[in-house]
Amino acid sequence: MESKSPNLQIFVRSPDLQIPTRTLIFENPKISPNLILDHLKSSLFPQSEIPHDSIFFTLNGKPLLDSKNLKKIPSFSTFTAHLRLHGGGGDGGSTCAESRDCFLNMYAVKKPDKVDPNEQRLSKWVNCSLSNEPLRSPVVIDKLGNFFNKEALVEGLLKKNLPKEFGYIKGLKDMIPVVLTEIPGAAKENGAVKFQCPLTGLEFNGKYKFFAIKSCGHVLSAKCLKEIKSPACLVCHKEFVESDKIVINGNEEEVNELWEKMKEEKIKDNGKKTKKKAKNGNVKEEAARLTGTKHGADGKDVRTNNGNGKKFKAADVAPANATSAVYASIFTSSSKSDFKETYSCRSLPLGRN
Q1: How far is CA 341 from each of CA 336, 346, 349, rounded to the nearest angstrom?
Q2: DSSP string spanning 263-326?
Q3: In sequence order, what DSSP letters do the residues of 23-53 get, joined into one string?
Q4: Which one of 56, 116, 210, 251 is separated from 6 by 20 to 30 angstroms, measured CA to CA?
């Protein structure tokens, strides 16, 4: 649209370049049809001071091309000169090399929330290590000092879905029942009950060391056992030895010691089983030998050869005053018969009632 005014008057301002507003007046008859916006840029901003490709004009918030003809600009228009920020696609650093899926996947995957180490440490003392539910009676520990709800652990054993980290728990013999003392009047957090040492009152919060006594199941603080040295439990007065103490939720070094101790006990138990099996095998062999010589005439085993390398014959070892044929008939392999035999009985001859 050509201006009806004899003269073309426009205003140019630039907040980015901190240049005051300028007023430009062009006489309408003298405006060349080839006068474009790039010529205006060259006259206002010399190339030596600011590169022309770093500047662009907008009119009413819309960007204008450098090839825009000034004859089509309405009079009294206000141009705004901006500095062009180089880089990416003008959308905050994007290089346009990424596909849209990259951005969708980036925001689709939810980043895990940061876990408070204090809460994580406290959880090991008030929650079951398997189900992560609050501890409730009956409570047991394994041989590495981890707390479990017995119900959850037994259910995991029955369903055979225990995690690999608890694969060393094979049955009830690997569970040690413990007795926990609740803090009276303590407020429950998320349904979890807080526990304490029954003698010193120290809380299960991960800041203090505790031991479980395997012989009676009471859990006492290390401070209590150190100050009051006694060969018996200070709660139930049941005697125990040093090896009966299991540290609860110990550090890496303490857990490694318990692990080595557990492996030694397993090797020892396997050795006892092997000896017992061998002993039982010898007893059975002796019983079989005695059973085999029960019908022997001279103490020889009737199940084997008679000692001279010849094939065993029942008639050769018949007792005194016994008919050899009658004695041999006791053994099915000692007589030949035309009777047809099955796996369970002898069938009668044809025609016999």
Answers
A1: 11, 4, 10
A2: HHHHHHHHHHHHHHHHHHHHHHHHHHHHHHTTT-SSS--TTS--SSSPPP-GGGGPPTT--HHH
A3: EEEEEGGG--TT-BHHHHHHHHS-TTTS-GG
A4: 56
Which residues, 6+ apart, have CB-to-CB distance to 156 below 8 Å?
A: 130, 162, 166
Q: What is the distance between the alpha carbons of residues 86 and 52, in angstroms, rounded to a whole number?
A: 13
**198, 220 Cβ separation under 8 angstroms:** yes
Closest by alpha carbon to 57, among 66, 44, 67?
A: 66
Peptide bond into 138 cis (omega under 30): yes
Low-confidence stretches of the chain (pLDDT beneath 50) = 1-5, 88, 293-306, 334-335, 352-353
How does 244-276 read in b/e, with b if 16+ C-beta sit within 10 Å? bebbbbbeeebeeebeeeeeeeeeeeeeeeeee
Sign, CA dihedral 244-247-252-255, equals: positive
User: What value does the mean pLDDT of the chain take?
Assistant: 76
pLDDT in tens, 175-193: 999 999 998 887 777 677 8
The position carrying tokens 């840029």 is: 41
User: Residue 276 is encoded by which pair of tokens?
Assistant: 């017992």
